[in-house]
Amino acid sequence: MSKHVRAFAHPSLVLALLLLAAAAPAAWPSHAGAQSVLTGEWTASIDSDAPDRLQLNLERRTEKGGRSQVGQDHDFSELRGLTREQVRRGGAVKFGLEREAGTIECEGSFRDGRGSGTFRFTGSQSFVSAMKSRGFDFEEDEGPRGDGREHENRLFAAASLNVTTALADDLLSAGFNRLEVGDLFKAAIFKVDSKFARELKAAGLPDLGMEDLVKARIFKLDAAYISEVARMGFAGQPMESLVKMRIFKVTPEFIAEARGEGLTDLSIEDLVKMKIFKIDSAFIRRAKADGVPLEVEELVRRRIGVRDRNFQE
């Protein structure tokens, strides 16, 4: 995922946004013709890794005392009425972020490269209508669990994360059987699109759902990595095996070292065990010198016994 989407660095904040889209189906006609308005506070600073971008954090409190927050980097060209020079110079500012789901108007000030103030979000009813025509209903509520403003909450999250009708059309074109509003949020946060889905399918992972594609993004499973795994001698692996290889950092170098020590018939489960128990080429050589059979299970037993017998590595 892009380093510029800071929400991913805070799983609890991502979850809060996704929960906005997990409403139980229920009609809410009272908002059908009204503009959606929310207010909150913002903080901002120039991104230390990208001086041409502004790190903008938006936070608002719900009527039941909860809190939602999202932070993203923005090019200054996205921010109507604000320049990098204004941020560096300091002083009072007014600027806006215009998105298809609505407009975020910010007012406040900067000092020493850091800013804060209040914002006002106005949702777009044309966006709501356009999404509904595509099968995505932003006017569902959570019933007794909600705070009565699920409609505005979803629009605010959609604007913050730049959920668009183009994204919806792209996902629908990928042939998913069922997509909900929450899937749009996931796709925006984790950069899932039809191109990514097609690439994984061509690489040998067909029929992946949105959750699978999100998992692939989280663990950096792409077509290039799947091809690399195939070159390691493990073509046609299911997704869960690929995830394990990523989690435990099973690399071509690690596999080559193990094979170089004589372990030529290794499964992915064997390699994962070796990683878990820190069985590397040096350990294998010492174990072989002590007469340990050249089998993964025997090496694991030796490693477990290291602590009990004070085996010197």
Query: Gap between N and C termini, in Å?
Result: 40 Å
Summarize the main sheet.
7 strands, antiparallel
Strand content: 15-25%
Mean pLDDT: 85
Helix content: 40-55%
Rg for CA atoms: 25 Å
| Structural class designation | alpha+beta
Structural notes for this entry:
By secondary structure, the chain is of the alpha+beta class. The chain has 3 domains: 6-190, no CATH class; 194-243, no CATH class; 248-309, no CATH class. It is 42% helix and 20% strand. The protein is built from 14 helices and 7 strands. It has helices at 11-20, 84-89, 125-133, 150-161, 165-173, 181-190, 194-202, 210-218, 223-231, 239-247, 252-260, 268-276, 281-289, 296-309; strands at residues 37-47, 50-61, 67-75, 79-80, 91-99, 102-111, 114-123. The chain has a 7-stranded antiparallel beta sheet. A hairpin with a 2-residue loop joins strand 6 (102-111) and strand 7. The longest helix is centred in the last third of the chain and has 14 residues, at 296-309. The radius of gyration is 25 Å and the shape is elongated.
Structure keywords:
313 residues; alpha+beta; 3 domains; 7-stranded antiparallel beta sheet; 14 helices; 7 strands; 20% strand; disordered N terminus
What's the quick description here?
With 313 residues, the chain is of the alpha+beta class. It is 42% helix and 20% strand. The chain folds into three domains: 6-190, no CATH class; 194-243, no CATH class; 248-309, no CATH class.
